[in-house]
Amino acid sequence: MTADEHRYDTGTQGEGAGLRDTLARHDALLGLSAGLAAALLGAGSLDRTIDAALAGLGRGTGVDRVYLFERLASNGTDRLVCTQTHEWVAEGIEPQIDNPALKALDMDAVYPRFVALLKRGQAVSGDIDAFSPDERALLDPQGIVSILVVPVLLDDRLWGFLGLDSVRHARTWTTVEQDVLKLLAASLGAALQRRRAEAGLRRAARVFESTRDGLIVANLDGTIVDVNPALERTCGYHRSVLLGQSWKTLLAEVPAQAGLDQRVALALRDDGHWQGECLIRHGDGSLVQQWLSASLIPGDDGRPAQFVAVTTDVSALKESESRLDFLAHHDSLTRLPNRRRAQVELAEAIARTRGTGGRVAVLFLDLDRFKQINDSLGHPVGDEVLAEVVGRLRGRLRGNDLLARYGGDEFLVLLEGIHGADEAVAVARELSDCLRPPIDRPGGALHVTASVGISLFPDHGDDAESLVREADLAMYRAKQSGRDRVFLYTEEMAQAVQHTLRLERRLRDALARGDLALHYQPRLALAGNRINGAEALLRVDDGDGGLLPTGEVIRLAEALGLIVPIGRWLVDEACRQMRAWDEAGLPPLPVSVNVSAAQFYDDDLAGTIDAALARHGLAADRLEVELTETVLFDRPAQAVEVLAGLRERGVGAALDDFGTGYSSLSYLMRFPVERLKIDHVFVASLLDDERATAIAAAMVSLGHRLGLRMVAEGVETSRQLALLRGLGFDEAQGYLIGRPQPAADFAGLLAGA
Ligand code: C2E
Ligand code: CA
Ligand code: CA
Known about the structure:
The protein is an alpha+beta fold. 45% of the residues lie in helices and 22% in strands. It contains 27 helices and 25 strands. Ligand C2E is lined by residues 521, 537-538, 550-551, 554, 570, 594-596, 626, 656-657, 680, 714-716, 733-735, 740.
């Protein structure tokens, strides 16, 4: 299977990996920020909410320290003096909240450049290597390597700043991430402002500060006894008109607010305070949204006689919240609803349809080979193609069909009110067809096709999550059977999924336990009848004394993106083992490792190999890699490059499973490899198929002319071995020579040889 055939790989590799990762990071940060902004609007303890917000940000962004500096109440000057009021640190990171150097920090003196940027609403970010010595004086002792500081601005006034430090690894921030954090910081500012208003009131309830917040003092029965100038501005009435009236006359008469004054009165009686949103009817007839916070005021005798209500303009808060909300639910490139939004819409469509006998269809559409477009022509072209695709798809959909961008090159279409599978399939076909006409570009026309999977409510599932999963699965099957197809979900697909899910769970458990091992299978040089190498094969314990099926595990690990970390471990482990054998005085044999597409193209394979060889003090010619044709043909030009890099180092390469795929020797000539391994199915056919024998003879002579060593795999009988010798094979592998076995057993075999 090539990387591209596997749907999970699409966009998770190569150039696509960056894009996908960035999108995922943005998506996660937006979701996080929208949630935090909503929490800040809520009525819980602000300190705790801020602490939780910083922790959420820290974990969500992977930084080591997140903190809030707040401006100290102005002391007559307009110097910016800030103090750290909240902090979150990752495990193992030194907290700085009590660092005296950061208390009452005179920002203008220490960080004039930062202050200038922050006041303009700009973030400060970068590796601190690039900062001036003065700026580093406070950052270096904290071990900081990179930093992001965003202003907490409200109404153009700097209330403080939010900082995200990286100590262990430098981190870069995209402009989208910076913008999202600025919006979040604005929500934070609004919340802080609100709290300051409240705190001020608690200190001196009867002193009307010259606050921009409206203040109402009322008797317990609601009669207004005083208001401040800000409230006059908010509601557009003069104080003299308001005094003696019930405060409820300020509230707009909308259904949502019916009985609000009574609810406030009850809360005051029971809890001593109330807060929430309310709509005030302005004298000019308009509605003004305010955050209202009411508290009892103790009288001279200590018993409450009055209450004070503070009204805060929440439109600033609201605005940043709704922008965050929009960003969190829309894809920034296509402006289409995103994954999260699509799921919500689907859930709603299901709720509307349930019990009506109608159907909802979910179409999961994935562009074929989009990764190649991105890789070969660059992201801007990829973006153009996506925009064109979206335009065409939109043109084919009805007004109330929903088109959403689900991932890099994945789209979801929701069809409500359809009558059956045929109708959904017909729409899916139309959508695929509309993509078929080539996209004209200056550099030449591009051809785009899509694979589509369909699931239906209620036929295939009862909730959004399962329907999307099923449509996705059907799409995956469409890819597997050659792409550019439409597949309807079936029960049999579900069973396959159940199986895969079970395997995934067991694989993840094994990874968590570290239950991975390499087994070694000997390779025999036919000329001297000596073992001249070994192939390392992955073995994963199932936790019950058995092993998980390796082939399936590898495919799954590829699909889940686990193959890269496993592969890195594997290269290192093979080298460690060779070194151990060397030290035990065994003959120094080369070991070959199997390499998947993801490792070969997207991971720094050469770097991983260099590091492993160096760490274990081995020469480069001790390691070989095995690659299949499908991997090489996936991106031939890049493959040649990677292989050349390996050859330069002295690391050998073998073409694996030859005889199962494209199998054109002359085509393979272009790949610089040393060995050709003939697949065991082909080897098995040799004894009873004369034609196969003839082809094998031709292969060997061609291979030899190309300077390749010819290896037969899966040799199980001595008759086979004799025939292979006669045909001129150089090397053989298989159960006859030795099974894949644990390192200790393999050492025994070598010592006995
Ligand atoms: P492969 O590279 O073709 O490896 C040879 C497979 O044939 C191994 O299966 C081996 O156990 C099996 N085999 C060896 N001799 C005989 C024989 O005489 N008769 C028969 N019937 N089979 C024989 P295994 O270990 O299950 O691996 C299956 C495939 O999984 C491998 O095929 C390889 O493509 C992949 N794989 C295994 N280990 C790794 C790994 O560490 N990394 C990656 N990327 N792929 C791996
Ligand atoms: Ca192999
Ligand atoms: Ca093989």
